[in-house]
Specification:
Layout (H helix, E strand, L loop, with lengths): L3 H7 L5 E5 L2 E5 L4 H11 L2 H13 L4 E2 H8 L3 H13 L3 E6 L2 E6 L1 H22 L1
Antiparallel strand pairs: 1-2, 3-5, 4-5
Helix pairs in contact: 3-5
Length: 128
């Protein structure tokens, strides 16, 4: 489990190293433009559902067809939303034969959560 207090107090605009699922990872300190872009992508119900499904599915991801079936989203609509999430850096895609597999970018999602936590923590400290 990640020591959230250590990470939140160590951000300060720099990359940090931590263990994610037993694997060392580098987490960047997300800037405001990246955060706005990511939050904007998630501020739409279908994209939020897609991201949630992919996070629940894990690192192996899902083919676009399975996402479409699981959420009842037509393929052309799904393609639009997947592209939006990819441009925001929240998901990744890879080709596996004739399928495109989509998976969450856990580092980007974690950076977004930590950006929000750090911003709220700074606000709370200033108002205390």
């Amino acid at each position: 489990m990640i020591n959230e207090k250590f990470i939140a107090s160590s951000l300060c605009g720099q990359n940090i190293l931590f263990a994610y699922g037993g694997m060392p990872c580098i987490l960047w300190a997300m800037n405001i433009d990246e955060a706005v872009n990511a939050f904007g992508a998630l501020a739409q119900e279908t994209r939020l559902k897609i991201c949630k499904l992919l996070v629940e599915t894990g690192r192996n991801g899902l083919p676009a067809g399975d996402i479409s079936l699981a959420l009842g989203i037509p393929q052309n609509t799904l393609s639009f939303h997947l592209s939006h999430l990819q441009r925001a850096g929240l998901i990744r895609s890879r080709r596996a034969g004739r399928f495109i597999i989509y998976s969450p970018d856990h580092a980007a999602i974690d950076a977004l959560i930590l950006y929000l936590a750090e911003t709220c923590r700074e606000k709370a400290q200033k108002s205390a």
